[in-house]
Amino acid sequence: MRVYNFSAGPAQLPLPVLERASAELTDWAGSGMSVLEVSHRGKDFVACAADAEAALRRIMGIPEGYRVLFLQGGASAQFAAIPMNLTAEGDTAAYLNTGQWSAKAIKEARNQGLDVVVAADESASSYTTTPAPGSYEVPASARYLHYTPNETIGGVEFPGIPDVEAPLVADFSSTILSRPLDVSRFGLIYAGAQKNMGPSGLAVVIVREDLLGRARPTTPGVLDYTRMAAADSMLNTPPTFAIYLLGLIAHWIEDGGGLAAMGERNLAKAGLLYSAIDDSDLYTNPVEERSRSWMNIPFTLADPALDAEFLAGAQDAGLTNLKGHRSVGGMRASIYNAMPIEGVRALIDYMTDFERTRA
Description:
Blueprint: E1 4-5, H1 15-24, H2 43-60, E2 66-72, H3 74-86, E3 92-97, H4 100-111, E4 115-121, E5 142-147, E6 150-151, E7 156-157, E8 168-171, E9 188-192, E10 202-208, H5 225-230, H6 240-255, H7 258-278, E11 283-284, E12 296-301, H8 307-316, E13 319-320, E14 331-334, H9 341-357
Parallel strand pairs: 1-13, 3-4, 3-5, 5-8, 8-9
Antiparallel strand pairs: 2-10, 6-7, 9-10, 11-12, 12-14
Helix pairs in contact: 1-6, 2-6, 3-4, 7-9
């Protein structure tokens, strides 16, 4: 029986995509082989990867002058790859610190010998806020400004795109493909696939071409954006199955009305769940209202002694992976693209029943 999987990642994948992949698993494209078994150099898989990129470009509206890279190591590898590709040792880079993932990116940038300027630090609020527009300054010498539009752990999301002169670099792991996005506002976008794009291990990097050709001489080839772009992301063996699934998911989004329709569905799901939390006497969301995430919704119970019972009952009801991150506790419902509104309604019904029986 399929459950409603509220995991923050690896996350629930669209059922039609899983069923398509299952049907093709032992005989892909009439090859007599699984897509897991074919050569990444073969014409069939080269065409598959090209189709995945083309579909991604269409649904995101990626302009000319940007390269799309399919890389390994997830988003975390990009914490180091970005300074390696965009800076020289000793350069200045600016970061906004709004949660544990941006803090990890800051630490890695310092490991790469950068003068890191933390232009805004929301740690004093226990990462329940985002900086207000105009409340921070980015040094003119900064090679880029890095931020995390959505912090998966804390459920904090920027309500808008920072307006800065420096190239904007953003970790979109938790929100990519969840709604329309003006890619032209960014110098570089990167995202781990395991939220809205497929299985773990794959990272997608969308980089403006004028930022290529700057990699440090010591940058490993598989992390060098220029070399990977020249090789169509096949300098080494790419994560073939993940790329194949990304293509299927991009087509699924396209067939469902594109990112505009996806954004409407996601906003509706988040609105239902936040309303249920706000109208409750048992549940509380700790994030300031303007900074609430559409994708990751944390909540706590008024009596933490009820947490274990709540989770056990949810599991029995087919509502899985609701336990909050160990660093913040409580609950967290991640409602990425593949989570249908019926899953959110089922969660709300359970939360309502749980509160009523313990009032």
